[in-house]
Design brief:
With about 120 residues, this protein is α/β, with parallel strands linked by helices. The chain contains 2 helices and 7 strands; from the N terminus they run αβββαββββ. The longest helix is centred in the first third of the chain and has 15 residues.
């Protein structure tokens, strides 16, 4: 009679697989994926440079909301003080915009993971 073979499940393999999958889905911190169609930023239309979002929230001077289209390949959203072009002054009908993009600039792509968009939770 042979002794019963005792088998154990490997927790370290399961944890490693989950960690690798999470890193893949989040792009290893290489940008932000959102489900929205556009990135909403504040811009001075006279200089075409990005302004802090607070300038638009406080309706100061020439500050206006500006919408940069996003694609699945990603878009570099400019930092505050950098030129912001290639967008539109009005959000097209039926489209959504990600708000609260970091004032330091960010690579943002439309992918559907990692963002809520409506509460300004993208970036810092």
């Amino acid at each position: 009679m042979q002794p019963a073979v005792r088998r154990r499940a490997s927790r370290s393999v399961s944890i490693g697989v989950v960690a690798a999958l999470a890193a893949t889905l989040t792009g290893c911190g290489q940008g932000t994926n959102v489900s929205e169609d556009y990135a909403q930023i504040c811009r001075d239309n006279a200089t075409e440079k990005r302004l802090p979002d607070d300038d638009c929230n406080n309706h100061g001077g020439g500050a206006h909301w500006y919408f940069l289209p996003l694609g699945s390949s990603g878009r570099n959203v400019p930092a505050v003080g950098q030129p912001a072009t290639g967008g539109t002054d009005a959000l097209p009908s039926g489209k959504t915009a990600a708000k609260g993009i970091s004032g330091d600039g960010a690579s943002v792509s439309r992918g559907g993971f990692g963002g809520s968009g409506s509460d300004g939770s993208h970036g810092g």
